[in-house]
Design a protein that fits this description.
Helices cover about 90% and strands about 0% of the residues. With about 160 residues, the protein is mainly α. The protein folds into 2 domains: about 60 residues, no CATH class; about 90 residues. The longest helix has about 45 residues. It is rod-shaped. The protein binds zinc ion. Zinc ion binds next to helix 4.
Length: about 160
C-alpha cells in the first residue's frame, strides 16, 4: 500500500492529495506519507504552501466579504449623515422661526413706521433680500455637496 501510493503519485499527481491533505480529508496513513513527501520534495512543498495560502485566502474571502467589512462604516456614515441632516434642519428651522419672527416684528415696526426715512426702509428690504439669498446659496451648496458625495461613493 505504501509503495503503491508512492509509485502511483508522482509530483504532478500530488496536487489532488495535497488539497485533500490540507482539508484533512486523507486517512492518517496518507497524511503521514504526504507529510513525509512534502518534507523531502521541494516542489511539492512549494505547491503545498501555495495551496495553503490560496485556501486561506478563499476562506477569508468567504468569511469576511468586502460588503460585510464595509457595512459598519457605511451604516455609521449613513447615521452620521442622517443626524447631520436632522441637526441642520433643526438649526435652520429653529433659526428661521425664532430669528424670522423677531426680525419680522422689528422689520414690520420699522417698515410701517412712516416717520422713518425711505433709505432706512430700503436698506431693510435689501437686508432681508440678501439674507434670503444667502440662505438659498448655503442650501444649494449643501445639496450639491450631498450629490457629489453620492457620486463619489458610487464610483468607489
Ligand atoms: Zn513531490
Amino acid at each position: 500500500m505504501t509503495q503503491s501510493f508512492n509509485s502511483m503519485a508522482p509530483c504532478e499527481q500530488m496536487e489532488v492529495f495535497i488539497s485533500g491533505y490540507i482539508d484533512g480529508e486523507l486517512t492518517q496513513q496518507e497524511s503521514q506519507q504526504m507529510a513525509v513527501h512534502i518534507r523531502r520534495c521541494e516542489s511539492c512543498e512549494k505547491l503545498y504552501k501555495e495551496l495553503v495560502e490560496l485556501k486561506g485566502m478563499t476562506k477569508e474571502a468567504h468569511h469576511i466579504t468586502v460588503d460585510e467589512r464595509d457595512l459598519p462604516r457605511i451604516l455609521e456614515n449613513k447615521t452620521n449623515r442622517w443626524l447631520m441632516t436632522l441637526a441642520w434642519a433643526l438649526v435652520i428651522i429653529g433659526g428661521l422661526v425664532v430669528g424670522g419672527f423677531m426680525a419680522w416684528d422689528l422689520a414690520y415696526a420699522l417698515w410701517t413706521d412712516t416717520s422713518q426715512p425711505w433709505w432706512l426702509r430700503f436698506a431693510l428690504g435689501a437686508f432681508y433680500l440678501g439674507f434670503v439669498g444667502l440662505f438659498l446659496v448655503v442650501l444649494r451648496q449643501r445639496l450639491i455637496a450631498r450629490k457629489t458625495d453620492k457620486y463619489r461613493k458610487v464610483k468607489l
